[in-house]
Predict the structure.
Amino acid sequence: MKPPILIGENISFSPEFYAHLDKLSNSFVIVTDSTVKKLYAKDLERRLRSRGHTVKTFHFKGGETSKNRETKAHLEDQMIKNGIHRDFVMIALGGGVVTDLAGYIAATFLRGLKLINMPTSLVGMVDASHGGKNGINTDVGKNLIGSFYIPSLIVVDPMFLRTLPDEEMKNGLSEMIKHSLVSDSNLFTELYNSPEYYRTPLILRSIEIKYSIIGKDLLDRGLRNLLNFGHSIGHAIELTSNYQVGHGLAVAMGIMTECRLSKELSKEDLQQIDSIFEKYNYPLFLPENVTKEGIYKTLLFDKKAMHGTINCTFLSKIGTSYLERIDPNAMEYAIDWMFKRFGPPHYAENFNHALVD
Ligand code: GLY
């Protein structure tokens, strides 16, 4: 279930990397987005060709709004037209959107192509490229269609982070903070105190937490739900804002809000959690198009999709988590808190932090 993972600065230029690829095939299909194509895919294509491999590259316009059926169909049509056959191994080179979309194509194209995930974003390195989940969004929700498909190799090279914009770094940092909150208080402290959180050792710790959880529940029937901490609210914010609020910022607000559901969490822990996002200068606010009604509608849809039983992750303290059913009253309170804290000023009227924190 845990595929080989190559990790380290510049690992994607190492003899070890080429040896793994040589073992898998001599034909590769790179799927990437337009930005990563220019930055890294052309160079990778050239390097693989110079070693005698056949390489074809397909790209799409980057961004969450491309993660849909249309982009998938377009890429598949291109691959069919260009004669991609079952000996080709797919390399998903890019961020979470690329690995989600390419992974889904790899899972179904000719009933399955071998897959190599090469995440170029921090969120891809610590989260999205591990655990086999892939998929696409529809108008009513994120990741509603997809599969579990384990890659044959994952290559985590923090060298790619050199060109990553700050917002993208925050997408990854939010997931690392999430991992630490559900499972490892020491990692939380290290993230708090390490501005260089994007180096190999902390990335590796974050990855290990993910595998320790999915090792017990790959197919997401129970325990894996711990990894959705902050994401029920986070997804609802992303969707209702029409993706105006990026994933990392939405998950940060989701984490802070879902923390308010946990009765046992101490005031000190709550403050530490709020302050890690302040420390890393997260610009957290809800734009005007995010309304309470919109958030409830999305949460209700999620609930229906899960047969009415949404389990939510609760923290008893930083680093210790458990799953429990959501109490609708507690959720209402938490959403109220969120709008007062992050919403437009009219939500904050008569607001007293001391009462709700
Ligand atoms: N990103 C959450 C999971 O892989 O389950």
Notes: The chain is about 50% helix and 15% strand.
